[in-house]
């Protein structure tokens, strides 16, 4: 009976002349009020409890994301994964859980189209993959057949409304103070880690040490960063349209950012030829900039950056690339996700140039000296840095952090 009732209410809503004014995720209160009138008109004797339940379901279907809305409303859910019709999982506190999901393939596609259509994007056989951002900042990725064999797949990564402090990554006062010093002293910081390791969350935490008087330009493929500073310019790449035109890459935005008088540049993730432009930006006075890269370890991130620079296709010799890396980056912070779902900083290393003599560089010709390493009792200090602050007004690092 509830299914037929919802169908009748939905059919009447579609016939309303003001439907275009009511439709859309930002008009949920008006949609809810109109649906309440129609639902009460269709079933005047419906008890309060089932009436409220049906009203919530109808509002979610018309003005929201249908059965995804209850999942996205839970603050502990960090990821929603739809693996096809009727199959969905969520990540809650770092662990995967199966959940009920009553949509068929057509319903999943309609749900995604509701998100991407206002953004000028499309999802069909000619464009079977799409990336978009929800109004709350969550990142959505969808892929449909023929690329997804078992039906449309949707992955939504959510980002907490409240910032996560550095201490949440398993740091004591010494390591926390050192990382904050790195940012305020103008060191260029590279955060490395695997997929879903917490790189962006850590980048947000590090950015809290940026002084509020500085102008920060953030560059991302899909906007995820939420900096608390008042003077922030956010740039987001744009994919090409169905005709293959109109695309703006992260590399284009890095170049544009240099003309915007930034004090610091924050590149959400380096994954292509923009690595070369980022290194050049860091070598031209934008001290204290931050970025992330996918890598299996702190040492491996150096070789990863070298490889990404080669993708720029400018034919630089490897010696020139390593010289750029050595002068641009100061410290690498590696974060990992443990089996229990927690995110922990595993190592903090200082970048030093010169021939590798201890295997620390993994053959890249750049030495990464461990300053802090993860041990049984936490992140332990290993060696004091030798680099000086990039900003002349910054104090030197506190020797007590390594004593």
Structural write-up:
It is a single chain. By secondary structure, this protein is of the alpha/beta class. The chain has three domains: 2-63, no CATH class; 68-157, Beta-Lactamase (2-Layer Sandwich), CATH 3.30.450.90; 166-401, P-loop containing nucleotide triphosphate hydrolases (Rossmann fold, 3-Layer(aba) Sandwich). It is built from twelve helices and 15 strands. The strands form two sheets. The chain has a nine-stranded mixed sheet, sandwiched between helices. It has a six-stranded antiparallel sheet with strand order 3-2-1-6-5-4. Helix 3 (28-42) packs across helix 4. The chain is elongated. The relative contact order is 0.09.
Task: For this entry, give a set of tags.
single chain; 403 residues; alpha/beta; Beta-Lactamase; Rossmann fold; 12 helices; 15 strands
Summarize the structure in short.
This protein has helices at 2-14, 19-22, 28-42, 48-63, 68-72, 105-116, 173-184, 199-207, 250-257, 274-282, 298-310, 318-328, and strands at residues 77-82, 88-92, 95-99, 129-133, 139-143, 153-157, 189-193, 216-220, 232-236, 264-267, 290-294, 331-337, 343-353, 366-375, 378-381. With 403 residues, it is an alpha/beta fold.
């Amino acid at each position: 009976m509830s299914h037929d009732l919802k169908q009748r209410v939905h059919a009447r809503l579609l016939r309303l002349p003001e439907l275009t004014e009511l439709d859309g995720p930002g008009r949920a209160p008006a949609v809810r009020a109109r649906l309440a009138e129609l639902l009460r008109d269709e079933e005047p004797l419906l008890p309060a409890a089932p009436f409220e339940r049906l009203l919530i379901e109808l509002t979610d279907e018309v003005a929201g994301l249908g059965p995804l809305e209850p999942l996205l409303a839970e603050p502990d859910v960090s990821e929603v994964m739809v693996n096809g019709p009727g199959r969905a999982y969520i990540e809650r506190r770092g662990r995967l859980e199966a959940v009920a999901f009553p949509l068929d393939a057509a319903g999943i596609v309609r749900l995604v189209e509701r998100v991407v259509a206002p953004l000028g994007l499309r999802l069909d056989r000619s464009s079977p993959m799409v990336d978009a951002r929800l109004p709350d900042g969550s990142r959505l990725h969808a892929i449909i057949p023929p690329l997804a064999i078992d039906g449309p797949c949707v992955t939504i990564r959510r980002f907490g409304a409240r910032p996560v402090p550095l201490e949440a990554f398993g740091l004591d006062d010494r390591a926390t103070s050192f990382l904050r010093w790195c940012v305020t002293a103008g060191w260029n910081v590279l955060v490395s880690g695997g997929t879903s390791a917490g790189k962006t969350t850590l980048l947000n935490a590090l950015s809290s040490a940026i002084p509020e008087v500085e102008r920060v330009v953030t560059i991302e493929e899909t906007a995820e960063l939420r900096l608390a500073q008042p003077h922030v310019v956010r740039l987001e790449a744009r994919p090409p349209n169905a005709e293959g035109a109109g695309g703006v890459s992260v590399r284009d935005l890095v170049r544009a950012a240099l003309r915007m008088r930034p004090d610091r540049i924050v590149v959400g993730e380096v994954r292509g030829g923009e690595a070369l432009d980022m290194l050049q930006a860091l070598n031209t006075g934008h001290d204290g900039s931050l970025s992330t890269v996918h890598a299996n370890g702190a040492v491996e991130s150096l070789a990863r950056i070298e490889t990404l620079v080669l993708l720029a296709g400018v034919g630089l010799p490897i010696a020139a690339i390593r010289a750029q890396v050595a002068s641009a980056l100061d410290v690498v912070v590696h974060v990992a996700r443990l089996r229990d779902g927690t995110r922990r900083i595993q190592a903090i290393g200082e970048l030093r140039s010169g021939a590798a003599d201890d295997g620390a560089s993994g053959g890249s010709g750049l030495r990464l000296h461990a300053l802090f390493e993860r041990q049984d009792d936490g992140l332990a200090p290993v060696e004091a840095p030798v680099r000086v602050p990039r900003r002349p007004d910054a104090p030197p690092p506190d020797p007590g952090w390594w004593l």
